[in-house]
Amino acid sequence: PGAPKELYSPQDPLALLDSRSLPRALNNSASAWLLEFYSSWCGHCVQYAPTWRVLAGDVKDWEPVIKIGVLDCANEVNTDVCKQYGIQYYPSFRFFKAFTKEFTQGENYKSGAEHDVQTVRQVIIDFLQNSPAESKPPACPSLAPIESSQVESLIAVKESHYTAVIYESPDSYIGREVILDFVQYEGLVVKRALDTDKEALQKLGIVSVPSCYLIYPNGTHGLINNLEPLRSLFSSHLKSLPGVRKKTLSRPELTTKPTKPDKMTETWKEFDKSKMYMADLESGLHYLLRVEVATHQMLKGDELKAFKDFITILYKLFPGRPHVARLLETLQDWLVSMPLDKIPYDAILDLVNNKMQISGIYLTSHVQWVGCQGSEPGLRGYPCSLWKLFHTLTVQAALQPNALTNTAFEGNSQAVLQTMRQYIKHFFGCRECAGHFESMAKESMDDVKTLKEAVLWLWSKHNKVNKRLAGAASEDVKSPKVDWPTPDMCPACHGEVKGVHNWNEEEVLVFLKKHYGSKDISLLYSD
Ligand code: FAD
Predict the structure, then answer these.
(1) Active site residue: 45, 140, 212, 430, which one?
(2) Is the CB of residue 467 below 6 angstroms from any atom belonging to ligand 1?
(3) CA 15 / ligand 1 centre spacing (Å)
(4) pLDDT tens digits along 39-66
């Protein structure tokens, strides 16, 4: 047999340590550490790796306080270090306190037993609370409950941020989990209070615990209703509040400014985030046809094919108003009738622009972002509309399974996804984004077998991108990057299995079909 397969990869949300990096990571670290010493040939470790990976993702936001890492004792470069740490059984779990300067073997937790994610989270919290003051990570907020009198004084003052108070029973960990979920966020402070002062609870209208009581920056306050009292739902709801955002990452992140800056609209347009706006889709089409693809002077080869396929998909599936649908039809007919193996883009532009003269066929010639408005220049806008466009197209394909009959895409469940892949690859102005998207496509797009799976594939990949970009410079405070749809938009989409957030994909699909289905597209602010 060859070398044992590695159980963890650099893509996992944890630190892959070895004999050299381990001492450096632990020495005088400002955060505590929880390490799994494993062996890649140990069956238990293999079975447990998915749980550990989920745990690391689940507490990724706690990183300034506690980091999760792994070290493979089966790798020969680590033999000595595993001996030094006294590792005899796999997997072994060890806690290391913050600011450790002398060598220590760390603290074992429960004789190597494998625990589910929820239990490990609670063990972490117990460890943090039992750490002596001198080794408390500075980023760790107070995890102790506050008194009801303190809640009253919080309600009495206006602050620049929200305050969420989680009311719970003394043995509940939810409050502390949510407090830790927000150590990297600004705009919100989380506290916990116990359910012992019944009179105080009654005053606030709290009839059951755990409950989340929210004090707004303007001083108004109230109980968050309609949310199942689960840690992940409290956290995702609070993360979706306007103005709550992940603190900017210190390492440079990609920004996604379009190739040419959008014309900014002067006044903020109120909109409903649960609605789709035709103005966003049409503005996106305008930008794409007249600016983004227009940077290519001549379309030929794969680019020409990608463009033609894209127009076919738009013509068949874009839920446009009649004047836009006719423009797409005209463009499609013209491209099909062109036997040329290269087309100067000016010819296409002529068609798109001149058709405006003929009454009844036109596409708006400026951008008007509504649901894709950015609160500052350079934020949101075009990339937002592109996501919305492709989600709409995957949903339309699922709603009308026969729409692509008699086209080259007949019977192809990946038609929209492959067309998007080619568009992004050849034309999307943000090249880093295109590279990221291509690697996701390469990894799993081929597994998509049905039109429904195509809808869910794009949804889950978009969430993956959101996760990566939370706190990045391209994030708009008014539209934080969060798991989407948020619990307030679709409570039934969310649940927990063994204490870990779990999507109900059937419900997500129902939601996406409704959200991106044509009946929901608002014409507000459309020309
Ligand atoms: P967006 O992420 O653009 O989302 C637009 C809207 O879609 C949201 O407002 C919401 O209504 C809805 N939505 C959100 N999540 C989902 C979901 N999971 N499923 C369905 N609908 C959802 N930027 C980078 O910095 N680095 C990158 O690598 C990168 N890659 C990208 C790849 C692609 C293919 C695209 C189209 C964009 C990429 N971007 C990247 C841009 C980035 O994803 C955002 O589009 C941009 O930052 C604007 O963000 P936004 O707040 O408007 O929300």
Answers:
(1) 45
(2) no
(3) 27
(4) 877 777 888 899 999 999 999 999 999 9
Ligand 1: centre distance to CA 384 (Å): 5
Q: What is the pTM of this model?
A: 0.74
Q: How far is CA 188 from the centre of its chain?
A: 19
Backbone CA torsion sign across 190, 193, 199, 205: positive
* Cα three-residue angle 121-197-228, rounded to 5 degrees: 45
Q: Count the alpha carbons within 13 Å of 284 in the hemisphere toward its beta carbon.
A: 25
**pLDDT, tens digit, 9 for 90 and up, residues 17-34:** 999 999 999 999 999 999
For residues 237 and 255, what is the distance between their CA atoms, to the nearest angstrom?
26
42 is annotated as an active-site residue: yes
Atom 38 of ligand 1: nearest residue by CA position: 433
Listing DSSP states for 336-370 in one string gives HT---SEEEHHHHHHHHHHTTTSTT----SS---S
The two tokens of residue 470 are: 């939370």
Report the pLDDT averaged over residues 2-15. Answer: 77
CB-neighbour burial class of residue 254 (10 A; exposed 0-12, middle 13-18, buried 19+):
middle
- The pLDDT-based confidence of 378 (bands split at 50, 70, 90) is confident
Residue 199 tokens, joined: 């009179």
Query: What is the whole-number distance in angstroms between the Cα of residue 149 and the centre of ligand 1?
Result: 43
